[in-house]
Amino acid sequence: MAEIEIGRGKRGRVAYSLDEVAIAPSRRTRDADEVSTAWQIDAYRFDAPVMAAPMDSVVSPESAIALGRLGIPAVLNLEGLWTRYADPAPQLEQIRRAPAHEATALLQTIYGAAAIDDGLVAERVGQIREAGVTVAGGVSPQAAGRLAPVAVAAGIDILVIRGTTVSAEHVSPGHAPLNLKTFIYDLEVPVIVGGCATYQAALHLMRTGAAGVLVGFGGGAAHTTSDVLGIRVPMASAIADVAAARRDYLDESGGRYVHVIADGSVGSSGALVKAIACGADAAMVGSLLARASDAPGNGVHWGAEAWHAHLPRGERKELGVVGSLEQILCGPSTHADGSANIIGALRKAMATTGYSDLKEFQRIDVVLDPE
Questions:
Q1: Structural domain boundaries, residue 140
Q2: How much is the mean pLDDT over the chain?
Q3: Rounded CA gap, 276 and 342, in Å?
Q4: For position 227, which CATH number holds?
């Protein structure tokens, strides 16, 4: 791994973002209708390697059902508006209409004014399950011990434990931390956990028994973690490092495959293509889907980091609307910026470079394209 000297007392390794890499065409092409974008994790198979992020601007029970019918798993935030308010429509309207300089304080007030209701957690999970689609729910590491049993009892299929940085070993002198290995072992559903951005951290998370590992720090376009905490690893290098951990863990475990899911910096169809090319099995997207006319935010986007009571690490963003959820995922697109028909774009990229499925496409040559 290349390192450079920052100064006499510190060295740093070179890392690359998705914007700084590009894929290289191979010696063959194929018809787009011969390409498969199908992705499977545990017993659940989906039409494309995309997950809707557990962000209230993206996933409501209604949009989760709509996305599920389009072949995409949507992760409902089990600590969000739909588990705090029986009808969050007024709160959503306030968030969408608030002036930019008041948005963060308003988010803190709205999320702080109502506690998470276990009954609503079970009700929302049941609502999605009754529609016949895969039910995925997201929790923070701090709330996992309390909310996961409620969600599992209500019929959740996949649990996502998502935080800015999640480790298999949390040191705390004040209280017993969540033991991920024991916790995951005791659950009856597959667990996806993250974020992480380094080889060693990913390897530790894989050893907990997780079905998938999130690469990144959550929030994507809506977070300000780099500004607030100084934490950031460029996504192309982070995915490649975690993909290497997946390969080594496959050998170490005697064949257990852990999925690598890019979580952040996937704000266009081209970024999705490059994330897969760098080694991701799928991507968790937020801002792309927040631009949908039938998403809860209706073009306005925010994540869990934005309403932290003491140290917000995100913000509400006004992205605008580009089409429906179906148009953003499956087309047709009237935009030439990678904001719609993202599955069609992935299929076209795979066909243009001659690959027939996602696992093959992970082996494509990548070139550096720094600007």
A1: 16-368
A2: 92
A3: 13
A4: 3.20.20.70
